[in-house]
Amino acid sequence: MEIDIKRYGITNVPVDADSLFTFEKGLAGFEESKRFKLFHEEGSKSVFWLQSVDDVSLTFPVVSPDAIDVEYQIELSDEEGAQIGLESAEDAVIAIIVYREGTDDGKIAANTLSPLILNQKTHKGMQKILKNVEPKLLYRAN
Prior knowledge:
Blueprint: E1 2-5, E2 10-14, E3 21-23, E4 35-40, E5 47-52, E6 59-63, E7 70-71, H1 78-83, E8 92-100, E9 108-110, E10 116-119, E11 124-127, E12 136-137
Parallel strand pairs: 3-11
Antiparallel strand pairs: 1-2, 3-4, 4-5, 5-6, 6-8, 7-12, 8-9, 8-10, 10-11
């Protein structure tokens, strides 16, 4: 299969269909896009891109919670675990969508209340909407 990565103006990028992540319910506000390819720019180790293959104009920059000093302890219901085929916590990876605010200074912000949960084995994912939860911010000593 081939996909287009509109953000970089690249077309006909070969992709192994087995490497796509499937979000059964899509992402909040983008429920119609269910299949995504996760990739990173050469040389970039902290920012990844979640590219929709259902809508080539839809790309989300994502980071590990560690990259922005956030720690999660997320409990999934049995239904949520089944939705992504999760049998072991070690198979789960958390990613956070980041974005540039629409203000003049264009600060980078993170959607810490709606992390993505990715199952590395099944390549199924979900967006977990957290309510009444404050992610724990970690501070690194210099």
